[in-house]
């Protein structure tokens, strides 16, 4: 079984009496160790797909299996557990807690994963050093640059040692040099065996992946290797 | 994920938003401090009334009071002699369930020390039987109480209350006063005893610490300390010139002590027997032998008095029981209403917490979304909010306890001595529990609201 397996998945939103098909009969497989880019204009449904794959939502119809978990009819608790154990998120807006310092931000998934306190701090510190933030451990996000914030976010995504990293426009809020450095980190992660799913509207960023899936109006219209 | 960790997160959140947290705990601080202060006040009231009751005498006492006879017996009310010494004699002889009988008569007269220019003051002089000392629970400070013999002989001796004694002879110690002469009106009396100085514990504390309070404070023991007691018969013969004094001129009585005792006793007692019905009493207080037979004792009293009063029900029993009940129920009412008001303020405090937490939830939607994205389950979010509420209210409760200690000190300065507020640890415990409950309840709605957020829209929330 593939790491990610979607079969005839649809997502339908009800707005008033109008039915909006954000995703329409999607079939998709992603294998372990792949570096996939999902590309499409805004409103194409790529964010909805991202949310489904990231276990933030469940499909309206179809079958969805992620890391061996059948999630077509999952409860919020099941989704939370998969998000915690199997998935790491990197967002465009970093989404760090500004009241907490770097280490506390990084250890957040470990807290909800039930890891004992001492071990938590140690692992968070180690990952922070891995992404090059060893000298910033007790700073809080407002005191960091955009690139550093995104490194904190990546460290947080990695700390629980998940199989899949989802990145939603990870370079959108960064200048191009920093963005390149961050993309370089994703390359390294992929090289070390992590499965990466990157959502972007920028074809030049998508070109760094091994496989590009193009979405338009809720359907996969094209798949190619760059 | 363990509860402990959830608590840690909640506590860290509270610490991270200090100003907001302090604002929201203000209501709890006020509620807790007022609750504890109210309980201390009512506790003080209880203690005050208890000491007051103790010095009045125990539950065993029954005061026989006169009242208007019922309308059916109005027509022959004149047949009853009223409350007389005969009642006391009959009760003493026949009522087996009564252990002490204390009939009293009283006059007002000037009291001064003989041969000295000391104070002359108008005092209440009581004529009593020795049982009086038991019933009023007097303690002798120096000398002795009045004895049966004093009463039989109509001796001219007096037992003084401590305040009276020290006012008459300001410099002397009470031991040296025994044997001195006091003038009641114009008649000389020999001091045979001086009573202890009665004071509440609080007064004793103030006295010992050397502080003298300039302000006048209501003193439950004042009356007791200003007692002047002489034998019943002496007072009757000396100051109530009725039928009896006519039979025996005053000059004779003055020489009582020099006459042979035996004859004196017989004349006194025979005379008392003749006039016993005509000696109306100021008060008649009896003591029940055993509290277990309290009701039967009252029945016994009623039957005896029915005979002596010739069937006219012009008497009534006042028991301390009624009194205690009345006082206690009023204290209870005060405690209840005070507690209720403070409980309401605690509830208001809880609503304050809820208000601010609700506001903070909408401010923290994004934070909640982030926590959910990294794997927090709805119940983790719910518990976090609940913990925050409880933690805030717990800190509020501790601050409130601190504030209430200060408040009680202030109340101590302005409240009367015997009702001084007393910190009760039940009250402290109760208010902490109540505050925690308020925090818990105030966290439920915001917690549910936060837990139900959709992670996607929460993450997008700006």
Structural account:
The complex is a heterodimer of chains A (226) and B (462). Helix content of chain A is 34%, strand content 29%. Chain A is α/β, with parallel strands linked by helices. A six-stranded mixed sheet of chain A has the order 6-7-8-3-9-10, sandwiched between helices. A four-stranded antiparallel sheet of chain A has the order 2-1-4-5, covered by helices on one side. In chain A, strand 7, helix 7 and strand 8 form a beta-alpha-beta unit. In chain A, helix 6 runs parallel beside helix 7. The longest helix of chain A has 16 residues, at 176-191. Chain A is globular. Chain A starts with a strand and ends with a strand. By secondary structure, chain B is α+β, with helices and mostly antiparallel strands. Helices cover 57% and strands 14% of the residues of chain B. Chain B is built from 18 helices and ten strands. Chain B has helices at residues 3-16, 18-56, 85-94, 131-135, 148-153, 162-168, 201-209, 222-225, 232-239, 243-247, 250-254, 261-275, 294-308, 320-363, 365-373, 378-414, 425-451, 455-460; strands spanning 61-66, 98-113, 121-128, 140-143, 157-160, 181-184, 187-195, 228-231, 283-288, 315-319. Chain B has a six-stranded mixed barrel. In chain B, strand 6 (181-184) and strand 7 form a beta hairpin. In chain B, helix 16 (378-414) runs antiparallel to helix 17 (425-451). Chains A and B meet through helix 2 and helix 4 of A and helix 1, helix 15, helix 16 and helix 18 of B.
